[in-house]
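Assess the record.
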Amino acid sequence: MTAPTREAAASRSTTVALAGHARHGESALCSPHIPREQPVQGRRTWQRLSTHVQDVIGIIEHHDLHDVTLVCHSYGGMVIACVADRIPERIAHLVWLNAMLPSDGQSCLDSALGAAELHS
């Protein structure tokens, strides 16, 4: 058995459940101190791509993470693409597992329609 490298010993993994996608009672954020979009009083809160992107960025910045590898599935591909676009200096790798891989300027609907055309 080999000794772990310094880099491997220093690495850690965190799972983030996106707001609106977590099981009841779970939070998408690790800490109440992480800034996030505030809902407008009297209006129903809808989770948007921008909310999810800001949540992930908030976690990365709050924990002062660098050389981050983001791994996603499904809709999460849209999220990590936007995160990487906003804070590229903190991202080392992106991994898409059966996820949306948007082209520049492409929306979720564009991506889903493109996938449907490939399979029809």
